[in-house]
UniProtKB/TrEMBL annotation:
Protein name: Mitochondrial inner membrane protease subunit
Source taxonomy: Eukaryota, Viridiplantae, Chlorophyta, core chlorophytes, Chlorophyceae
Highest taxon, organism lineage: Eukaryota
GO molecular function: peptidase activity
Species: Raphidocelis subcapitata
GO biological process: proteolysis
Keyword tags: Hydrolase, Protease
Length: 233
């Protein structure tokens, strides 16, 4: 039996930092809720939460349908409407401009789904405080509000109108569909699998690519992800 492959040191550090943030966030939430813990109790709670968070993977797997992100993702959907592609998502528990960058491909809860069960995938085009200028000269420029980002589909032919024109629609449906709260982001897409011979890392911002590299190395098991898949283009 061969020895297990050692985990990259940067991956171990990322796991530890993620677990530490989870532990501190949990303690802060308890304090805000009025919990009064002694130093020993706080340490015990933090250690328990740290261990729990550290034991969890930094990624999950989802599927994408449709051609909105083609040709970057699910390219085959441009010819086959039923095509789907498997995606590896690096989970981001507390998204912010520090963890999300322009150019990142992100999965997020759809702003049009009040239940938050519909997940969409788009590329970040702008972050909070960035000025947006419309192609329509009659539309004044505006800045992306704090705590939000502007996302776009890679396939412009699949983009919906920015704002439905009917004022009788609920306010949530009159909000630009490209403007989403950072808090709705579930994670960043770091790997795609279309077939056993068609898979690879997803192009994100340079900073994200560097940060995600050890996660891809440690958690992306291509053999497992492509098991049972046929070859493709």
């Amino acid at each position: 039996m061969s020895a297990a492959k050692p985990l990259p040191s940067r991956y171990v550090l990322l796991k530890a930092m993620t677990a530490l943030e989870a532990a501190m966030s949990d303690l802060s939430a308890r304090t805000a809720a009025g919990a009064r813990l002694s130093l020993g109790e706080s340490a015990g709670v933090a250690l328990s939460k740290f261990r729990e968070a550290y034991s969890k993977p930094l990624t999950s797997v989802m599927y994408i349908a449709g051609a909105a992100m083609a040709p970057s993702l699910n390219k085959q959907a441009q010819e086959d409407a039923a095509a789907v592609e498997k995606l590896v998502v690096r989970l981001i528990p507390r998204p912010s401009p520090r963890t999300i960058g322009i150019g990142d491909v992100v999965a997020f809860s759809s702003p049009l789904d009040a239940q938050g069960q519909h997940v969409m995938v788009r590329r970040v085009a702008a972050l909070e405080a960035h000025e947006m200028v419309s192609d329509d000269p009659e539309e004044p420029p505006f800045r992306v509000p704090p705590g939000h980002c502007w996302v776009l589909a890679d396939n412009p032919a699949m983009e919906p109108p920015d704002v439905p024109s009917d004022p009788r629609l609920p306010q949530t449906l009159r909000t630009p569909q490209h403007l989403i709260p950072l808090s709705s982001i579930l994670g960043r897409i770091i790997y795609r699998v279309a077939a056993s011979d068609a898979h690879g890392p997803v192009t994100n911002s340079p900073a994200a690519a560097a940060s995600d590299a050890p996660v891809v190395e440690a958690e992306v098991d291509v053999e497992s992800l492509t098991a049972g898949m046929d070859g493709g283009s």
